[in-house]
Amino acid sequence: MGREAMDTPDYIQEFLERNPKALEVYQSLPPSHQSEYVRWIEEAKREETRARRMEKMMAMLLDREG
Fold it and tell me: pTM for this one?
C-alpha cells in the first residue's frame, strides 16, 4: 500500500512560497506525491544536499506547470 502523507516542513513551504507558480503546482499534487518530495529532501544528510534538492524540486514543479 501507499505511504501516509507527510506535512510539508516550514523550511520547504517557505522555499516554495518564493515562487507562486511552483507553490501552486506543488499544492495541486496528490498528498502522496508531495510526501515523496519531502522525503527525498529530508533524507539528505547535508544542508548543501537539501538545498540542491529543493532547487531541483522547484525546477521539476515548474517543468510540470508547462
Answer: 0.86
